[in-house]
Amino acid sequence: xxxxxxxxxxxxxxxxxxxxxxxxxxxxxxxxxxxxxxxxxxxxxxxxxxxxxxxxxxxxxxxxxxxxxxxxxxxxxxxxxxxxxxxxxxxxxxxxxxxxxxxxxxxxxxxxxxxxxxxxxxxxxxxxxxxxxxxxxxxxxxxxxxxxxxxxxxxxxxxxx
Length: 161
What we know:
By secondary structure, the protein is an alpha+beta fold. It starts with 9 loop residues before the first strand and ends with a helix. Strand 2 (15-16) and strand 3 (22-23) form a beta hairpin. The chain has one domain. It has a four-stranded mixed sheet with strand order 5-6-9-10. 15% of the residues are buried. The chain is 27% helix and 34% strand. The chain has helices at residues 52-56, 59-70, 122-136, 149-160, and strands at residues 10-11, 15-16, 22-23, 26-27, 31-34, 40-47, 74-75, 78-79, 86-103, 106-118. The protein has four helices and ten strands.
């Protein structure tokens, strides 16, 4: 879809987690594709080492976008369009493989690319939202544990920052 067909930021209407708690999703999708069969695809771009496993880390982000377009809301700049069905979500990974020209303020690169199609799982997504709201509702955050994938991911982000 063209830039003028989508607002830069998209938001959902008020949604409910499995426990009935309200939340709203928002974000800026990289690209939305309208297929010949009138269904839509949402693709996210990542500059990273190519890996199907890494692409899995973004399944909730992409399902969030799918939920936003399926249950659109509105912000001051205007409404999010309703787009359905969302038939595909995926991650297009880029990794620089060669710098073949560079100057003080620019460079030209070759990239390796990989597309990983992700499976939609709405039920799993809402369970994930429920868990996040449960954690955010705690008076004291839970301790980091070694066997928790989310804790390991968060710990890496803290070290990088």
